Amino acid sequence: MSGVIRGYIRAVDAVNFRVGRVMMYGIFVLMGILLWSSISKTFFLPSLWTLEMAQFVMVAYYILGGPYSIQLGSNVRMDLLYGEWSTRKKAWFDLMTVCFLIFYLCVLLYGAVSSTAYSLGYWGTEPFSFFGGLVTGSEEVGRMERSSTAWRPYLWPIKATMILGMFLMLLQCISELLKDVLRLKGEAI
């Protein structure tokens, strides 16, 4: 069983490491969009798409970079007491708090799936069955949701990015939970 746990940890950590390293460069994409926005407003007609696209890039940047941040332990933590604790006490505390985080991420993931289904024109109450129906061909994409701005982009791509990011975060949190279990057992990770 320990081999399966270690394999899961290695696989999830590797995926989130690679996604996080790619998303690190998203800040340069964001800077480029905002630079173009400033240039176009100063010298040309203002571009309609720049500010909303910058928001979309920022959402992708922090949602897809979040699991990498958790993996590196670079998330914000109250170190007043935590820093002085033993490794075992830290593992117990992390084990309890990551369970709350996993529950919260499950709720967010359900909301993201529902919101994405809505953006694809689904008006029902079973978003997971809608996506299953899309795969099997029993459901069709309806009238897609668009932004209310002048640019009017479709919203499903950023909502699908949110699903991916929350799913990767959930997998990373399960990986951290398993690491804490291994620490409590006294095994090396």
Automatic annotation (TrEMBL):
GO cellular component: plasma membrane
Top-level taxon of the source organism: Bacteria
A single GO molecular function term of this UniProt record: transmembrane transporter activity
Intracellular or extracellular location(s): Cell inner membrane
Domain Tripartite ATP-independent periplasmic transporters DctQ component: from-to ranges: 30-181
Keywords for this protein: Cell inner membrane, Cell membrane, Membrane, Transmembrane, Transmembrane helix, Transport
Segments passing through the bilayer: 21-39, 51-70, 91-113, 154-174
InterPro entries cross-referenced by the UniProt entry: DctQ, TRAP_DctQ
Membrane topology annotation: Multi-pass membrane protein
PANTHER family in alphabetical order: 2,3-DIKETO-L-GULONATE TRAP TRANSPORTER SMALL PERMEASE PROTEIN YIAM, SLL1102 PROTEIN
Subunit and partners: The complex comprises the extracytoplasmic solute receptor protein and the two transmembrane proteins.
Membership in a protein family: Belongs to the TRAP transporter small permease family.
Reported function: Part of the tripartite ATP-independent periplasmic (TRAP) transport system.
Record's protein name: TRAP transporter small permease protein
Organism listed in the record: Litoreibacter albidus
